[in-house]
Amino acid sequence: MPSTPRASLIGSASCTVVVCRGCCCGDARKHPGTDHVWQLDLLRAGAAEHGFQVRTTDCLGPCDQANVIVVRPSAAGRRAGGRAAWIGFVMDDEGTEEVVQWAAAGGPGVVEPPLTLELQFIEPPREARVRSRRRR
User: Which of 46, 80, 118, 125 is deepest in the core (most CB within 10 A)?
Assistant: First the structure.
């Protein structure tokens, strides 16, 4: 049986999608054209179907690039050199669905992100970069 990115994940933890829901991300007053509850529902439905994890947090930091989502690699992805991908401006169903599909396929280190999603990658705040370097 040929090896696929999906098959290589068997026996290892899935990637994790962290969704900011702090002061700017997830705020209907600041982003009235985005259905923030629906976005989280889409991510959770994708996680239930494909086996990755979804977590929410109060604030990831780069508020001027809301809505921010971080896709953290699985153990297999980290072993392959994958690092957390910070994605900004995820405001519509298409962007959210790209996050779901990438996480479902294995995420960072396992498969390349869709190009349109990669164009939304942002720099993590300094604190996150320092924590990441300490773990290596």
Answer: 46
CATH of the domain at 111: 3.40.30.10
pTM for the full model?
Answer: 0.83
Distance set, CA 19 to CA 4, 39, 42, 43 (Å): 28, 10, 12, 9
DSSP assignment letter at 119: T
**Count of structural domains within the chain:** 1
Give 64's DSSP letter.
G
- pLDDT tens digits for range 53-75: 999 999 898 888 989 999 999 99
Spatial contact of 98 and 116, defined as CB atoms under 8 Å apart: yes
Find the DSSP H helices in the chain: 5-8, 36-50, 75-79, 93-105, 115-118, 126-135
Residue 92 located in a structural domain: yes
Tokens of 94: 């298409």
Residue 62 lies in a domain: yes
Q: Which residue has the tokens 């699985």?
A: 74
The token pair at 48 is 């239930």
